[in-house]
Prior knowledge:
This protein is α/β, with parallel strands linked by helices. It has one domain (3-219): P-loop containing nucleotide triphosphate hydrolases (Rossmann fold, 3-Layer(aba) Sandwich), CATH 3.40.50.300. The protein is built from nine helices and eight strands. It has helices spanning 15-26, 33-42, 46-55, 63-74, 92-104, 119-127, 167-181, 183-190, 203-213, and strands at residues 3-7, 29-32, 82-86, 109-116, 129-132, 138-140, 159-160, 194-198. The strands form two sheets. The protein has a five-stranded parallel sheet with strand order 2-3-1-4-8, with helices on both faces. Strands 6-5-7 form a three-stranded antiparallel sheet. A hairpin with a 5-residue loop joins strand 5 and strand 6. Helix 4 (63-74) packs parallel to helix 5. The protein starts with a strand and ends in a 7-residue tail after the last helix. One adenosine-5'-diphosphate (ADP) binds next to helix 1, helix 2 and helix 3. One adenosine-5'-diphosphate is lined by residues 11, 15-16, 33-34, 37, 54-55, 58-61, 66, 87-88, 90, 94, 164, 173.
Amino acid sequence: xxxxxxxxxxxxxxxxxxxxxxxxxxxxxxxxxxxxxxxxxxxxxxxxxxxxxxxxxxxxxxxxxxxxxxxxxxxxxxxxxxxxxxxxxxxxxxxxxxxxxxxxxxxxxxxxxxxxxxxxxxxxxxxxxxxxxxxxxxxxxxxxxxxxxxxxxxxxxxxxxxxxxxxxxxxxxxxxxxxxxxxxxxxxxxxxxxxxxxxxxxxxxxxxxxxxxxxxxxxx
Length: 220
Ligand code: ADP
Ligand code: ADP
């Protein structure tokens, strides 16, 4: 069965962390728009250079380039069974474009889990976030430290702190989220897709809440 999930929630609430866990359990592809932009930046593509000017300020990359990048990603074979979208859509225009794209792929958004969290906790979590250079694995020096400081448990690559995780940029990103992305909460609620999940619990508790809300048959 094809299944598309849209993870909603403010920066730092745990979307990437949960998307990776749910992707492993279900076999659904994990599509992170932020990771795709960072990969383009690492490879110094035109898209990456363009995205960087927005990302470093904590602003959204324009809809047309973002939509084009996601369309290409969703058309790859590993998305045949569906995908978990993390960080996309972030505007109503992107959400409309997603509906149209999934129509073409004979699919639709099955559910939009909305992970909630308090602003002060988000700023703190992002200040303590360490990210793996090779594959974007996510750590936290307090709540989810790697076995060896500075090194990814999964692929041994270097961990770094994202430039846009410094408090001023995080505050800007939260503001942008409230202005441009939060209308999606009503967008999916009106369509009967929204599932609210309390993101202030431990990582394991949030996973458990997602697994039961989404009726995921865990093989682990
Ligand atoms: P997002 O993708 O929504 O920006 P992340 O998944 O990258 O969020 O998580 C942000 C930071 O918070 C990371 O350092 C991550 O390890 C940590 N984190 C994620 N979920 C939790 C949680 N439930 N409790 C404590 N820390 C968490
Ligand atoms: P977070 O970990 O806070 O969820 P992301 O890694 O998803 O952050 O996004 C980092 C940056 O990439 C955003 O601040 C924005 O500049 C850009 N970006 C990611 N996804 C989108 C999107 N769907 N639309 C526009 N810009 C995006």
